[in-house]
Amino acid sequence: MANFDRETTEAALEQRLEELRRTRAAMRRESDGGASGEVAHLDNHPADEGTETHERELEVTTEVFLEEEERRIGEARRALADGTYGTCIGCGAQIPSARLAAVPEAVRCLDCQRHFEGLHSQHHSLRPES
Ligand SMILES: [Zn+2]
Hints:
By secondary structure, the chain is mainly alpha-helical. Helix content is 61%, strand content 0%. It has one domain: Up-down Bundle (Four Helix Bundle (Hemerythrin (Met), subunit A)), CATH 1.20.120.910. The protein has helices at residues 6-31, 51-82, 97-102, 110-124. The longest helix is centred in the middle third of the chain and has 32 residues, at 51-82. Zinc ion is lined by residues 88, 90-91, 93, 108-109, 111-112.
């Protein structure tokens, strides 16, 4: 059961959580005003109309993503406290230490994660295609 180092993992999760909170706080400050137009450089299309809507959608998507990430980190910390950390919650296999080092909040092995994300993104792309 030594596929991770508890102290390193705790520190890594703590740090990621801290980064997330900073990013979210910064995003909130930006959307309160003072948006300097820098964001517009991300989009090469010279579309004058709809740009604002696009930016807002992008912001919401990021916000949702960050919330999701925060929840995952919380899940990993709980698993760490419960002593189930390092074991895939999907299939019960040990998660490779290299994966845990790269993604400390991982609670699934790569196969289960791919499967999970596949289901997940299908739910989110249920919009009319025509
Ligand atoms: Zn698995």
